[in-house]
Amino acid sequence: MNAPADEPTPAGICAIVITYNPDNASLDCIQTIAAAAVHTVIVDNRSSEPCVQKLRELSSEKVSLVENTSNTGVAAGLNLGIRTGAGKGYSWFLLFDQDTRIFPNTIQNLVQIHADCFSALGPKLGLLGCGYHNKLHDGTVVDAAVPLSEGRLWLAKEFIITSGTLLSLEIFKTIGPFREDFFVDHVDHDYCLRARRKGFILACTTLPLMIHRLGILRTKRLWPVFGPKKVLSFYSPLRRYYQLRNFLFLARDYGDEFPQSIHFIRDLVRREIRLALKYDDHFLRNLTAVILAVRHSKHGIAGKYSGRIL
To answer: Which of 39, 177, 215, 276 is most buried (most C-beta within 10 Å)?
Structure first.
């Protein structure tokens, strides 16, 4: 059924989707993936019963639903999904969040771009990601900025997001499983850095092959009545905790080896936290999340946080 590890085909790729309380918009996204992929494994992280029931309705010969008994996090879900797909005989996997919508020809185009990329990089090619359009909270799709590529179908990257990433079982075994003690946030950064540490090159398509909601993006006027509108990300204080805590672990693990990459992530995290403290409606909770993140990273506390943030 499956092609050799260095030659993916649309018929040999298993889609992996991680879900947690998907809304109707997310269910629509999942259906676009299930319609395009030869097989889809949905790993649900203990969603509410109404949500799980809707996911069960998607189950078929083409769609396998794995119901976790607890919320094990994104990384653990990805690892379980890949193991499940491998158990069904697949050796190539296309990873997705529940908020990613693909097009009918996404997988076919990605396979063709992979062939072009592999012809240039050979076995050094580790992960191939999809370029994407951003989707705002109100449903507005923001056109992707197409990078200067001189007609090339792909570009080498320092990082790619997990959703829309194509990788083989062979590469997965070489790099290792996704880091489960991160639970959520910077799971993709950690995996990209480990791939590069192994000598692999990361690449991303220059043209958008999907529509992705990166967090909760909204447009907000920074000053009442006056001032320009900006696109800001709105996360819960708990997510701010994971973002900062896990970054601090990244900085310790990779700071000496990849200083520029860590500096890049640090700037992103600083910006997000600064904007959250300045413009979000939950200042005290966000501040508490920051203090907890610093404290826990200092003491090596990782995994799922089960406490309360105020």
So the answer is: 276
- In this predicted structure, what is the pLDDT of residue 3? 40
Q: Which domains does the chain have, with CATH numbers?
A: 10-212 (3.90.550.10), 217-298 (no CATH)
User: CA 113 to CA 108: how far, in whole Å?
Assistant: 9
Section 179-198 average pLDDT: 98
Closest by Cα among 44, 24, 153, 18 to 98: 18
Mean pLDDT of the chain: 92
Convert the pLDDT of each residue in 36-57 to its tens digit: 999 999 999 999 999 999 999 9
Q: Write down the pLDDT at residue 227.
A: 57
Task: Decide: 45 and 18 in contact? Cβ < 8 Å.
Answer: yes
Residues 248-306 pLDDT 10s: 999 999 999 999 999 999 999 999 999 889 888 899 999 999 999 999 999 999 999 99
Residue written as token pair 């001032």: 227
The two tokens of residue 278 are 């300045």
| Cα–Cα distances in angstroms (integers) from residue 63 to residues 33, 102, 151, 302, in the given order | 10, 16, 36, 33
By the 10 Å C-beta count (0-12 exposed, 13-18 middle, 19+ buried), 31 is classed as middle
What's the pLDDT score for residue 136?
Answer: 75
